[in-house]
Amino acid sequence: MIKVLIVDDSAVHQNYLTYILSSDPEIQVVGQAANGKEALEFLKLHQPDVITMDIYMPEMDGFEVTRRIMENNPLPIVIVSAVWDPMEVEKTFKAMEAGAVSLMEKPAGIGSPNSEQNAAELISMVKQAAVAKVARIRSLRVPASAPAVIPSSQRRRAGIKVVVLGASTGGPAAIQQFLVGLPSDFSLPILIVQHISSGFTRGLVEWLNQSSPLQVYVATQGEPIRGGYVYVAPEEFQMGVNNNGIIKLREDPPEHFMRPAASYLFRSALKAFSNATAGILLTGMGVDGAAELKLIKDAGGVTFAQNHNSSIIHGMPGEAIRLNGADYVLSPRDIASVLAGLVSNK
Fold first, then answer.
1. Which residues contact 93 (CB under 8 A, 6 or more apart)?
2. Does 158 reside within a domain?
3. What residues are annotated to the active site?
């Protein structure tokens, strides 16, 4: 049984989230709190498996209480936030930086067209969070570990033309760590698929731009990719690239229940750039992109998978490793270090 604490300043939202989660026989709501202070008091006496966290609350907001929990007694936290408020979205991603596992928009009320889909998403996120591995937060200012040694067989990789990256649960923070680890003169385009709840992609991009040495954009149809820029797939489109380096967005079916999907992006890049492709799989539930990472490796490209210790959920990178699809198994910061070394041919 997954024990959940709901933190929200609205009694209506508390009760509605309780109603949704209690509909699943594997979930038990063990407490409700109206603000961060009440949540911290609850945690002195109880140990839930997962916390759902509102952002704007009196006394202590969701960002601050998330930061305190992750500093002192880490627990999986799912942010349940409003996407229409830019200030709330900004604090939502600060909470992700502080260690929250995932995020979603506040569920639509009963009778709305998206109510059943929202309810299913919340239940799924709580179950994913329950198996996530969390740790005390560390500042991005903490130096990266010593760069991994590049095998001599991999040192001459100046021919890489594109980097493709896939991530899911825990991905925003992992992507941030990866981008922070790159030099400001990194010369290749980076295309990213991040599984994320509807409405949050633009907020993700704005948040990444606050720390990334490279410019991050939401990809647009027909856009030519340029070296030193980062392109994040928009919601509800599969993102690919052709051999002229032009982004193609299509409403093709989901893969692994995802649209955008890393598998689609990886195949597209491999078709366009062959062995000049570098593929990266970061933390996430499921297997999206794992088989395709192996295809990139088999074609002579270079491939990376996030290691177990630094992953919130090791599903996607773990499956790629099991398939022998990763040349390197490293933390996001070390992936950046090795990739930069390969590209610069140092």
1. 172, 203, 204, 206, 207
2. yes
3. 168, 195, 288
